[in-house]
Design a protein that fits this description.
Length: 249
């Protein structure tokens, strides 16, 4: 049987099959072919155009954007100046300088607060390790990713830029210790007294409070009405407190 006896359509079909096999081997078995495969696939995909910045697309719920220093419902700052976020940062992009609260100027419920807080976005990799290390959830990451700057100094954000707005009904810091105690709020969720009492120039260790205090946690709750009695009148150094090793009373 000669080639002239084969019908022309069959020869055409065999030619296309051989070319297709050679093309498939080229696209899958060679480095150059695998490079061509990427644009060839994109040719058959419908393009999806985002009208940015007029209509920016929503980001994922767990998107890591710009940081924010949060407040409690009454306006006190959550940051206690512990510097754990700075220690956890792999890029050394966070600087924290803590200071002591005083009865006349209280910024956080604890003994200390962040007097200076800076994040250098020239170095920050937005990994989120800092917010995982924060013990009071003072530092979180927002969905804001539009914080570029024309200068390096403009990418160093200070506490004033990172601190969240005062919640409705709250008061900007600093507060007086007397005002904070009159609210009777439990900021940390435990049985300890917050803020701690100052005696003789130093803060006394927090004493155990009634178990009802654990139910008065107000990280995001409503503030008490003016004139309300404190929910928890616990004091430090309660003489009736049972200590380990003491004889039963």
């Amino acid at each position: 049987m000669t080639l002239d006896a084969v019908p022309a359509p069959v020869i055409t079909a065999l030619t296309f099959v051989v070319l297709g096999v050679l093309l498939w081997l080229f696209l899958t078995r060679t480095v150059l072919g695998r490079g061509f495969a990427v644009p060839l696939k994109a040719m058959f995909v419908t393009p999806e155009t985002a009208e940015y910045p007029e209509k920016p697309r929503p980001v994922a719920p767990r998107f890591h954007g710009r940081h924010q220093l949060n407040r409690y419902a009454d306006g006190l700052e959550r940051c206690i100046g512990c510097e754990l976020c700075a220690w956890a940062c792999p890029a050394d992009a966070i600087y924290v300088q803590g200071a002591d609260n005083t009865p006349e100027a209280r910024y956080s419920p604890g003994e200390r607060y962040a007097d200076d807080y800076q994040i250098n976005y020239n170095r920050c990799i937005l990994c989120g390790l800092c917010i995982e290390a924060c013990p009071t959830r003072a530092l979180t990451m927002t969905h804001d990713y539009e914080f570029s700057s024309a200068t390096r100094d403009g990418l160093v954000w200070t506490k004033g830029e990172l601190l969240a707005e005062v919640p409705p009904g709250g008061v900007d810091t600093p507060h007086l210790d007397r005002e904070v105690r009159e609210r009777g709020l439990n900021y940390y969720g435990g049985l300890a007294v917050t803020p701690p009492l100052l005696h003789g120039g130093t803060y006394q260790p927090a004493a155990a409070a009634p178990s009802a205090r654990a139910g008065e946690v107000i990280p995001h709750g409503e503030l008490p009405e003016p004139g309300d009695e404190p929910h928890d009148p616990a004091t430090v150094g309660d003489p009736t407190r049972q200590r380990p090793g003491d004889a039963p009373r």
